[in-house]
Amino acid sequence: MPGKQPATTPKRLSASLEDYLETIFHIIAEKQVARAKEIASTLKVSRSSVTEAFRSLSQKGLINYAPYEVITLTPAGQEMAKDVILRHRALKDFFIKVLAVGEKIAEEGACKIEHAAPKEIIERLTQFVSFIEQCPRGGSDLISGFTKYCQTGKTDKKCKECIAHCLEK
Amino acid sequence: MPGKQPATTPKRLSASLEDYLETIFHIIAEKQVARAKEIASTLKVSRSSVTEAFRSLSQKGLINYAPYEVITLTPAGQEMAKDVILRHRALKDFFIKVLAVGEKIAEEGACKIEHAAPKEIIERLTQFVSFIEQCPRGGSDLISGFTKYCQTGKTDKKCKECIAHCLEK
DNA sequence: GAATACTGTTAGCCATTCCTAAAAATATTT
DNA sequence: AAATATTTTTAGGAATGGCTAACAGTATTC
Predict the structure, then answer these.
(1) pLDDT tens per residue across span B45-86
(2) For a Cys-Cys bond, which of A32, A48, A53, B137 suits A20, CB 3.0-4.6 Å?
(3) Helix segments in B32-158, DSSP class H
């Protein structure tokens, strides 16, 4: 082995650069090539801001970039982009599946929080979602109970019935 | 009535200004007076940055400020500070009580996420914590089950025993 | 009350991230 | 292939939020 690659993502980027990376990844996945114009419209920034972001990401070794050429993600860039997307998904999943928040707010919240949430919390959140889905005490009963609680402010009174449901599993 | 006050907090401040406001509120609560020196050391910024933040917060009508004088929060500033602190607490509570995350990470995560989380999500999170504490399916059984799940990757096998616990309540 | 120490402010600087307008490169059309 | 259209880059500027070093006020001590 000539030399080991950076084992893990070293530090975290600014929220802004994470957004660019995430967007680039998604556009490449969908259309093979990520063009400045589309990145700009997705992120609602000007095309010149995209150029500057390219320079910054390239200087950090996350994308391969030369003026007027097609950009690609470096291995480090791929890893980083996937990490951001993983955080995004973990958050959105939790918001929808556990908190029963609407799709729009869930997406919006994930977009913002993904840049701030420590990895330990993302991990726990992911575990919590799968726990709730698997645990007999959890599952859809718990979630529908929570939804009801949100609407009425009270926990469901038919507890025995509900626990009977639990026992069936 | 001469004119109505702004009913609710209008928009959200930058993360930085929210941090200043939060810190000012806490220091005033604790020591009556918030001095630039202490704010600086709490937030790990220079004293001159604090002066600049004072100007900005004052210009936004959130603190009363005149050079060399004691600063105070305006009613709008109080409201805003309380709102930030509420978000902080809601997040930290959730991290500790539900995700069973350590105090340090919970605090750190709350500090960062509080500036990004939409209010709808904070509300749901708060409701979820109290729901889990009240619902017979939830409570300490669920949390300890989750903790076990985090450690072992499996849900607790003693389901009947656990549901029996539920029934006792 | 004068000297000293401490705190707060100003001045000037830097990085980030956005912008618009103009110029350069690339792609498309005829 | 020349003209036109589109895309990308450059140039120059603004706002935010941080910094250090020097200066100005306030407080304390002798």
Answers:
(1) 999 999 999 999 999 999 999 999 999 999 999 999 999 999
(2) A53
(3) 36-43, 47-59, 75-93, 103-113, 119-134, 139-152
Determine the Cα–Cα distance for residues A159 and B8; give it in Å rounded to an integer. Answer: 39
Coil, helix or strand at residue B64: strand
Give the relative orientation of helices A139-152 and A159-168 as an angle to the nearest 10 degrees.
160
> From the CA of A67, how many Å to the nearest CA of chain B?
34
Question: A63 pairs with which residues across the strands?
Answer: A73
Half-sphere exposure of B69 (CA within 13 A, CB side): 10
pLDDT in tens, A39-61: 999 999 999 999 999 999 999 99
Closest Cα to residue B162, out of A155, A138, A118, A102? A138
**Dist. CA A113–CA A94, nearest whole Å:** 12
Closest Cα of chain B to A65: distance in Å? 31
Alpha helices for chain A (secondary structure H): 15-31, 36-43, 47-59, 75-93, 103-113, 119-134, 139-152, 159-168
* pTM for the predicted model, two decimal places: 0.84
- Measuring CA to CA, which residue among B53, B111, B57 is closest to residue B84? B111
Report the distance separating Cα A100 and Cα A107, nearest Å: 12
Report the pLDDT value the prediction gives residue A165, as an integer from 0 to 100.
56
Judge: A127–B138 Cβ closer than 8 Å, yes or no: no
Above 80 in pLDDT, residue B101? yes
pLDDT in the model for residue B104:
95
Q: Is B124 helix (H, G, I), strand (E, B) or coil?
A: helix
Contact B137 A145 (CB under 8 A): yes
- Distance, in Å, from the CA atom of B162 to the CA atom of B108, rounded to the nearest integer, reads 33
